[in-house]
Amino acid sequence: MPDTDDILLSARGLTKTFGEFTAVDGIDFAVRRGECFGFLGPNGAGKSSTMRMVGCVSPVTGGELRLFGLDPATDGPAIRARLGNCPQRDTLDEELSVEENLWIYGRYFGLSRKEVKERAAELLDFAQLTERAKDKVEPLSGGMKRRLTIARSLINAPEILLLDEPTTGLDPQARHVLWDRLFRLKRSGVTLVLTTHYMDEAEQLCDRLVVMDHGRIVAEGSPRQLIDDYSTREVLELRFDAEDHGAYADKVAGIGERVEVLPDRLLLYADNGDEASAQVHARGVEPLSSLVRRSTLEDVFLHLTGRTLVD
């Protein structure tokens, strides 16, 4: 176990309510220095409410929250000075140039003009935006705006970078470019805390993560640990010429560990997918198509909550 000095962020019984509605329901977690820690879950699971408390912009309703050993209720400004915050939606000033967005934000942290310009040049290079430094923000692509938002959140050289659904709405190529930038950040020593409802993103980026559902943590561990604990080594996907795939669930029952019924396919969980497929055919069941693949975090979520991640 790491020393307590390695714990930059911790929560015990953390709770957030809005009137009669409980958005975050007594969760415990800890984030270690230099890791990427993720909150995975569907929309409405409590991820963003948790991040707003961690970012010291929403007061804690109950429980204990500490960042760098400090209490957000009494030390909010000191904590925020050591945080970078990449919100779910870009809040760039589109009438200004790319570099001007960084300059102005840096001045909020009390950096001198010389420091801001030096730091901005470094961050534009990191975000692969140097050639667009003089351009207005408005015509930039979604991926470029997202990289600029992350660059802006790093202007104060934060120890922890908070990322709330950092790649929502981006195309696959832009997402992979952003993942590369975030991986480089982690390698440089920045601690990352992110929320996402993309399973592949969590697998790519997170050293550890928690799965949230209805404001509670339902599982915790590394992506590999969660898959090992809650799924099988392989999954057999079966598609049939039928509107209701549930009609075929009984026909393949007992093959593998369990069967999940989705609107467009059956998922049959087994350690050996090819062997499971042979057993399906031996029963005289003929799917339109079959596919054997490795288990993913989506399979973990289906097992834990019985529904897909993106609702």
TrEMBL record:
InterPro entries: AAA+_ATPase, ABC_transporter-like_ATP-bd, ABC_transporter-like_CS, ABC_transporter_ATP-binding, P-loop_NTPase. Keywords: Antibiotic resistance, ATP-binding, Cell membrane, Membrane, Nucleotide-binding, Translocase, Transport. Gene3D superfamilies: P-loop containing nucleotide triphosphate hydrolases. Pfam families: ABC_tran. GO terms for biological process: response to antibiotic. It is a peripheral membrane protein. It comes from the Bacteria. Residues 9-239 form the ABC transporter domain. SUPFAM superfamilies: P-loop containing nucleoside triphosphate hydrolases. It is found in: Cell membrane. PROSITE patterns: ABC_TRANSPORTER_1, ABC_TRANSPORTER_2. GO terms for molecular function: ATP binding; ATP hydrolysis activity. GO terms for cellular component: plasma membrane. Its main location: membrane. Belongs to the ABC transporter superfamily. This is ABC transporter ATP-binding protein. It comes from Knoellia koreensis.
